[in-house]
Design brief:
287 residues; MetI-like fold; single chain; 12 helices; mainly alpha
Amino acid sequence: MAVPAPYQVNFAHYRRRQAVNLAAFFLTGVCAAVTIGILLFILGYIAYHGFSSLNWDFFTKLPKPVGELGGGMANAIVGTFKLLGLATFVGVPIGFLGGVYLSEFGHNKIGFMVRYAADILNGVPSIVMGIFAYTVVVLPMGHFSALAGGFALGVMMIPIAVRSTEEFLKVVPHSVREAGFALGLPEWKVILFIVIPTATRGLITGILLDLSRVAGETAPLLFTAFSNRFWAEGWMEPIASLPVMVFTYAISPYDDWHRQSWAAALVLMMMVLVTGLTARILLRERN
């Protein structure tokens, strides 16, 4: 008995679809392998040049004057953590509160404008942020400072904190909110004591990813914190940081400075990798 036309298998069409599927699978696999290969090459190249220059003096001593070998970048390591801490203090509260507003109350034109502004701000080049902070903070103060550098990095953290906070709060099921309303709680208590604690792990993940985003920025710090070859006391004077030291030492004509630049790049890369890995682990545990 003949098979009806709608149920006949077009083997040529099936083989063509299978060939396209295999070609697409092969192409995506090659692209993934190339991406991973480039990343491993960069990490390996930095590690190869950086490990040879890492020693105890690098983490505990100040930079040596020009012409003297040795020294370290202890001030730059401490300065990087100080700048990131100040940036967190500036950017995270604003971004967190903005994200809470967008998640819970931002279903209107104001919310659309805030989201659009955050997306635009997230795409602004970092050097423009540096010029902005230079104009707003450095020029009125009359000198570079750690305060200006932390402010510049903090402004860069705001849009990422806004969007990540919004997304992680949106993941909280509406049934959790409804349970709080069923108990007679006002909306602000539901948000403060139920929604935010439920999304705590995701919010911390967003903050860590935000920090890893700005940890390696150099251009804003050149306009704001500048650099310092000594220990910076307080927040109102120039301060050293690893990204700026990498840039300064890399363009110098001294071989010893080049080696220390590779070591600083390795330390900075490890800081970013550890921060990003911690965020991924927290996010995986949350899921």
